[in-house]
């Protein structure tokens, strides 16, 4: 056998899957996820739950897929590709949440990062009210990690998380309620824009990155973080390492943002991921 043929047959790449909506502006959703997958060196499979008409300032329209087609997309890739980890993003409806959860129940070996996308940065509501009940009941218990931002964590818990102690209590309650690690993203807080809090069942940890002053864009950072964490997990990183790498990816994407129009800036595509910029600290009041 030709040695080149052997090389071709043994050449492999890790695979991650994103289940999310498409962003017509190319900065969030599926597009952000694939950018993160590419940067971290994994092949990206996609299941598209919705088409959106949006830019960094507003979501003006959403065309939602039906649950049967979401299931068809999932079945097309899950049985063929060696998917090591996945992330979910915008799921829109209870029908889609149920379709995703019912299918993923059969794939316990795949590490699952659930970003419970409820409210866009622009303020648009991206998850129907009845879908939140399905999310809590069917999908969150399947997750290995959930990554709500501060308003989403408050929505899931039904109360304000307006202090460090309440944030830590909230992360613990999410873990106890759904049996998965909870990373509450602090980017929506007014004081600590670069701190996220993790409770993994044993440890309560801050993940801190430097602040980027006057960034050109932060649109798509939540999608980018969950995608980068999923890619890192697909590459074999442990959870804490994956979160640290994901945070570093997002920090560098914000730092290297670029203008793409008179009023439009987008995240950059990092050429390196400065993991040493991310500090991990034990939670201390």
> Looking across the biggest beta sheet, what order are the strands in?
3-2-1-4-5-6-7-8-9-12
Task: Report the principal-axis shape.
Answer: globular
Q: Could you name the CATH class?
A: Alpha Beta
In percent, how helical is the residue content? 25-40%
Structural class: alpha/beta
**CATH superfamily name?**
Ribokinase
Order of helices and strands: HEHEEHEHEHEHHEEEHHEEE
How is the main sheet built? Answer: 10 strands, mixed
- List the uncertain runs: none
Query: What's the assembly state of these chains?
Result: single chain
Strand content: 15-25%
Count of discrete structural domains: 1
Total number of beta strands: 12
CATH arch. level architecture? 3-Layer(aba) Sandwich
Instruction: Provide mean pLDDT, rounded.
Output: 92
Radius of gyration: 18 Å
* Helical run tally: 9
Predict the CATH topology: UDP-N-acetylmuramoyl-L-alanine:D-glutamate ligase
Explain the overall architecture:
With 285 residues, the chain is α/β, with parallel strands linked by helices. The chain has a single domain, classed as UDP-N-acetylmuramoyl-L-alanine:D-glutamate ligase (3-Layer(aba) Sandwich), CATH 3.40.1190.20. It has 9 helices and 12 strands. The protein has helices at residues 3-10, 29-39, 67-78, 94-104, 129-139, 150-157, 164-178, 221-234, 239-255, and strands spanning 15-23, 43-55, 58-64, 83-88, 111-114, 145-146, 181-185, 195-199, 204-208, 258-259, 265-266, 279-282. The strands form 2 sheets. It has a 10-stranded mixed beta sheet. The protein has a two-stranded antiparallel sheet with strand order 10-11. A hairpin with a 2-residue loop joins strand 2 (43-55) and strand 3. Helix 2 crosses helix 8. The longest helix has 17 residues, at 239-255. The termini are far apart.
